[in-house]
Amino acid sequence: MPAPRWLTRLSSALALGAALLGASVAAAETIEVTDLAGRVVNVTRDPSKVVLSEGRQLYTLAMLDRDDPFKRVVGWGDDLIQNDPGAWAKYLAKFPQAKDVVQMGNPYAADVSMEKIAALGTEVYILDLSNYFKAQETGLLAKLEKAGIATIFVDFRQDPTRNVLPSVQLLGRVLGREKEAAAFADYYLRQTRRIYARIGAIADAKKPLVFVERAAGLLPCCATFGPFNFGRFVEEAGGRNWGSQFFSAFQAQAAQEKVLADDPDVYFLTGANWYGSNPGSSPVSLGYDATPEKVQKELAALMQRPGFPQLKAVQGKKVMAFYHQFYDAPYYFVAELAMAKEFYPDLFKDVDPEAVFKEFHEKFLPVPYSGVFWAKLQ
């Protein structure tokens, strides 16, 4: 005997109510994670309102929320807009709603505004590990906790060769993008391990000595890296980083006279389009909006500074400029591939770093590849 119509309607209503309740519970699911500062944090999984302390954290968010990297971002630092205008223009053209994201200012210029973060209804605040002690000292962490705003620390700058993978996996869990994070992990390991497999047995004595000038044309010569970030990139690619001999810090200032006297085998420098934020600078403006002709002109000019034309690296055309933002991006390994190919062309003759970066855009990023991200002095 068929059930009465009123009972069928009641059952359907109850089922719908249960489904809606289940969906609400799922949407508000809280998970426990350990961030890159080693803190155990309870955080809402798949939050709808996130604040990025640094705009360049978008490089990673774009991989995880590829369909719309801005859909959950309600506030961010202005460093991407100021320091990578080519990337900003490219993302803004694809996602015009990005202009509505509230700018939180320069994350390095002043303490983060707790009031601003709270007013945005922030569920998760993503902070760089380099600001961990500052956030403690200013009381920001305690204030965020009291306001019920979860804070997680990630690291794409201080020690990226160790921390990019756990940072992406952490964000994947928090944002409900575990599948995307796992796909990145596979690709990342495939690219980084093939470098190690080819150069891991090379003795240090046979490796080239490399000087890396940090933000050439923007900072005074010769800002450089210790055994971290670009300094570590050089080492993982099979070179000896000049700065690692003298400095234990992330970054340092080397005396130009000492660098010139040591006459490194290879000279690297980092550059980006800083002309808008620093009009008086003269960098190699690498990035999405760069052109080969302009890059070569800028690179050649920097190598004409007093004393530089006499360097054996300059005379032998063993000079390369790299996109500065690799130092804060999950795809830094592309720079390592280009370095390794420069150091050992025979070992990497089958590797095309630009093809890898193009493929990475096609597989993981919502915007197409364009521009110039490294260049060799011609």
UniProtKB/TrEMBL annotation:
Domain Fe/B12 periplasmic-binding per the UniProt entry, residue ranges: 49-351
Pfam family, one: Peripla_BP_2
Keywords assigned: Signal
SUPFAM superfamilies: Helical backbone' metal receptor
First and last residue of the signal peptide: 1-28
Name of the featured protein: ABC transporter substrate-binding protein
